[in-house]
Protein backbone atom coordinates (compact mmCIF):
# COMPACT_ATOMS: atom_id res chain seq x y z
CA UNK A 1 0.00 0.00 0.00
CA UNK A 2 1.35 3.44 -0.95
CA UNK A 3 1.98 6.25 1.53
CA UNK A 4 -0.90 8.30 0.10
CA UNK A 5 -3.28 5.33 0.30
CA UNK A 6 -2.38 4.85 3.97
CA UNK A 7 -2.92 8.55 4.63
CA UNK A 8 -6.32 8.52 2.92
CA UNK A 9 -7.41 5.41 4.83
CA UNK A 10 -6.37 7.00 8.11
CA UNK A 11 -8.10 10.25 7.14
CA UNK A 12 -11.38 8.49 6.48
CA UNK A 13 -11.38 7.14 10.05
CA UNK A 14 -10.22 10.50 11.43
CA UNK A 15 -13.19 12.28 9.85
CA UNK A 16 -15.76 9.54 10.58
CA UNK A 17 -14.76 9.48 14.27
CA UNK A 18 -14.96 13.32 14.55
CA UNK A 19 -11.34 13.52 15.69
CA UNK A 20 -11.07 16.92 13.99
CA UNK A 21 -13.22 18.61 16.63
CA UNK A 22 -10.34 19.23 19.07
CA UNK A 23 -8.55 21.24 16.36
CA UNK A 24 -11.38 23.63 15.52
CA UNK A 25 -10.30 27.26 15.49
CA UNK A 26 -10.48 30.29 13.19
CA UNK A 27 -8.16 31.47 10.44
CA UNK A 28 -6.90 34.28 12.71
CA UNK A 29 -3.88 33.48 14.91
CA UNK A 30 -4.84 33.73 18.60
CA UNK A 31 -1.36 34.92 19.59
CA UNK A 32 -1.26 37.34 16.63
CA UNK A 33 2.08 35.90 15.55
CA UNK A 34 3.40 34.65 12.21
CA UNK A 35 6.40 32.32 12.26
CA UNK A 36 8.78 31.58 9.41
CA UNK A 37 10.71 28.43 10.17
CA UNK A 38 12.47 25.52 8.50
CA UNK A 39 10.73 22.51 6.99
CA UNK A 40 13.01 20.18 9.01
CA UNK A 41 11.10 17.08 10.13
CA UNK A 42 12.41 17.41 13.70
CA UNK A 43 10.55 20.70 14.12
CA UNK A 44 7.10 19.48 13.10
CA UNK A 45 5.92 18.92 16.67
CA UNK A 46 8.96 20.04 18.66
CA UNK A 47 8.86 23.73 17.70
CA UNK A 48 5.24 24.41 18.70
CA UNK A 49 5.64 22.43 21.93
CA UNK A 50 8.92 24.20 22.78
CA UNK A 51 7.13 27.54 22.32
CA UNK A 52 3.95 26.56 24.16
CA UNK A 53 1.85 26.88 21.02
CA UNK A 54 -1.36 25.08 20.20
CA UNK A 55 -3.51 24.74 17.13
CA UNK A 56 -4.83 28.14 16.09
CA UNK A 57 -2.18 30.16 17.95
CA UNK A 58 0.05 31.23 15.04
CA UNK A 59 0.45 31.36 11.29
CA UNK A 60 3.28 28.96 10.41
CA UNK A 61 5.26 29.36 7.18
CA UNK A 62 7.92 26.76 6.36
CA UNK A 63 10.63 26.43 3.77
CA UNK A 64 14.19 25.14 3.49
CA UNK A 65 16.24 27.02 6.08
CA UNK A 66 13.65 29.66 7.07
CA UNK A 67 15.18 31.81 4.35
CA UNK A 68 13.67 34.68 2.42
CA UNK A 69 15.47 34.39 -0.89
CA UNK A 70 13.45 36.98 -2.77
CA UNK A 71 11.67 40.08 -1.42
CA UNK A 72 8.74 39.51 -3.78
CA UNK A 73 8.44 35.73 -3.46
CA UNK A 74 5.74 33.64 -1.81
CA UNK A 75 7.30 33.75 1.68
CA UNK A 76 7.21 37.54 1.93
CA UNK A 77 3.73 37.59 0.39
CA UNK A 78 2.53 35.14 3.04
CA UNK A 79 3.95 37.31 5.83
CA UNK A 80 2.24 40.40 4.44
CA UNK A 81 -1.07 38.55 4.07
CA UNK A 82 -0.79 37.32 7.68
CA UNK A 83 -0.31 40.91 8.87
CA UNK A 84 -2.77 42.80 6.70
CA UNK A 85 -5.53 40.22 6.30
CA UNK A 86 -5.20 37.78 9.20
CA UNK A 87 -4.44 40.12 12.12
CA UNK A 88 -0.87 39.04 12.91
CA UNK A 89 1.00 41.71 14.86
CA UNK A 90 4.45 40.15 15.22
CA UNK A 91 6.81 38.08 13.07
CA UNK A 92 9.37 35.53 14.24
CA UNK A 93 12.02 33.92 12.02
CA UNK A 94 13.26 30.67 13.56
CA UNK A 95 16.22 28.79 12.14
CA UNK A 96 17.76 25.72 13.73
CA UNK A 97 21.13 24.18 14.48
CA UNK A 98 22.13 21.31 12.21
CA UNK A 99 20.18 22.73 9.26
CA UNK A 100 20.64 21.02 5.91
CA UNK A 101 21.03 24.43 4.27
CA UNK A 102 24.32 25.05 6.11
CA UNK A 103 27.09 24.62 3.57
CA UNK A 104 24.70 23.58 0.80
CA UNK A 105 26.12 24.23 -2.66
CA UNK A 106 24.24 24.42 -5.93
CA UNK A 107 26.65 22.00 -7.58
CA UNK A 108 25.49 19.20 -5.27
CA UNK A 109 21.82 19.71 -6.14
CA UNK A 110 22.51 20.09 -9.86
CA UNK A 111 24.60 16.91 -9.88
CA UNK A 112 21.72 15.00 -8.23
CA UNK A 113 19.22 16.59 -10.63
CA UNK A 114 21.28 15.25 -13.56
CA UNK A 115 21.42 11.81 -11.92
CA UNK A 116 17.61 11.95 -11.80
CA UNK A 117 17.23 12.62 -15.52
CA UNK A 118 17.41 16.41 -15.74
CA UNK A 119 19.53 17.09 -18.81
CA UNK A 120 22.06 19.89 -19.26
CA UNK A 121 19.78 21.56 -21.83
CA UNK A 122 17.13 22.28 -19.19
CA UNK A 123 19.73 23.74 -16.86
CA UNK A 124 21.05 25.90 -19.71
CA UNK A 125 17.53 27.17 -20.47
CA UNK A 126 17.19 28.38 -16.87
CA UNK A 127 20.62 29.95 -16.90
CA UNK A 128 19.96 31.69 -20.23
CA UNK A 129 16.68 33.02 -18.82
CA UNK A 130 18.71 34.90 -16.23
CA UNK A 131 18.20 32.55 -13.28
CA UNK A 132 21.35 32.36 -11.21
CA UNK A 133 21.12 28.74 -10.08
CA UNK A 134 24.38 28.98 -8.16
CA UNK A 135 22.80 31.64 -5.95
CA UNK A 136 19.25 30.26 -5.85
CA UNK A 137 20.29 26.74 -4.86
CA UNK A 138 22.99 27.72 -2.36
CA UNK A 139 22.50 27.61 1.39
CA UNK A 140 24.29 29.59 4.08
CA UNK A 141 27.28 29.20 6.38
CA UNK A 142 25.89 30.43 9.71
CA UNK A 143 22.31 29.93 10.87
CA UNK A 144 22.37 32.98 13.15
CA UNK A 145 23.53 35.21 10.28
CA UNK A 146 20.90 33.71 7.98
CA UNK A 147 18.13 34.40 10.53
CA UNK A 148 19.39 37.99 10.99
CA UNK A 149 19.44 38.45 7.21
CA UNK A 150 15.84 37.22 6.85
CA UNK A 151 14.78 39.58 9.65
CA UNK A 152 16.47 42.49 7.83
CA UNK A 153 14.79 41.58 4.53
CA UNK A 154 11.36 41.52 6.19
CA UNK A 155 11.85 44.81 8.02
CA UNK A 156 13.18 46.61 4.95
CA UNK A 157 10.40 45.47 2.61
CA UNK A 158 8.60 48.50 1.16
CA UNK A 159 5.17 47.07 2.09
CA UNK A 160 6.11 46.02 5.62
CA UNK A 161 4.68 48.25 8.38
CA UNK A 162 7.28 49.85 10.65
CA UNK A 163 5.23 49.24 13.83
CA UNK A 164 5.37 45.43 13.50
CA UNK A 165 8.05 43.66 15.53
CA UNK A 166 10.28 41.08 13.85
CA UNK A 167 12.20 38.66 16.04
CA UNK A 168 14.90 36.16 15.13
CA UNK A 169 15.60 32.91 16.98
CA UNK A 170 17.50 29.66 16.59
CA UNK A 171 16.17 26.40 18.03
CA UNK A 172 18.13 23.30 18.98
CA UNK A 173 16.32 20.44 17.18
CA UNK A 174 17.46 17.98 19.82
CA UNK A 175 16.36 19.78 23.00
CA UNK A 176 13.98 22.51 21.81
CA UNK A 177 16.10 25.24 23.44
CA UNK A 178 15.50 28.63 21.82
CA UNK A 179 18.20 31.30 21.53
CA UNK A 180 17.21 34.87 20.75
CA UNK A 181 19.19 36.33 17.84
CA UNK A 182 17.15 39.48 17.21
CA UNK A 183 14.88 41.06 19.82
CA UNK A 184 12.22 42.82 17.77
CA UNK A 185 10.98 44.77 20.79
CA UNK A 186 14.35 46.50 21.14
CA UNK A 187 14.34 47.42 17.45
CA UNK A 188 10.85 48.95 17.68
CA UNK A 189 11.82 50.86 20.83
CA UNK A 190 15.06 52.22 19.31
CA UNK A 191 13.22 53.21 16.12
CA UNK A 192 10.59 55.12 18.09
CA UNK A 193 13.28 57.06 20.00
CA UNK A 194 15.01 58.01 16.74
CA UNK A 195 11.92 59.73 15.32
CA UNK A 196 12.58 63.49 15.28
CA UNK A 197 10.05 65.62 17.11
CA UNK A 198 8.08 68.21 15.13
UniProtKB/TrEMBL annotation:
<dbReference type="InterPro" id="IPR036874">
    <property type="entry name" value="Carbonic_anhydrase_sf"/>
</dbReference>
<dbReference type="Pfam" id="PF00484">
    <property type="entry name" value="Pro_CA"/>
</dbReference>
<protein>
    <recommendedName>
        <fullName>carbonic anhydrase</fullName>
        <ecNumber>4.2.1.1</ecNumber>
    </recommendedName>
</protein>
<comment type="similarity">
    <text>Belongs to the beta-class carbonic anhydrase family.</text>
</comment>
<keyword id="KW-0862">Zinc</keyword>
<dbReference type="GO" id="GO:0004089">
    <property type="term" value="F:carbonate dehydratase activity"/>
</dbReference>
<keyword id="KW-0479">Metal-binding</keyword>
<keyword id="KW-0456">Lyase</keyword>
<dbReference type="InterPro" id="IPR001765">
    <property type="entry name" value="Carbonic_anhydrase"/>
</dbReference>
Amino acid sequence: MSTISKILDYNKDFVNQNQYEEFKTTKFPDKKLVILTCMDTRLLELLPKAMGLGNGDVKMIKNAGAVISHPFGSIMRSILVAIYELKAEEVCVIGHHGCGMVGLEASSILKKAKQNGIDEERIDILTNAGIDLSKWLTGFQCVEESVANSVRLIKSHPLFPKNITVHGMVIDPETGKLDLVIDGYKDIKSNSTNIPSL
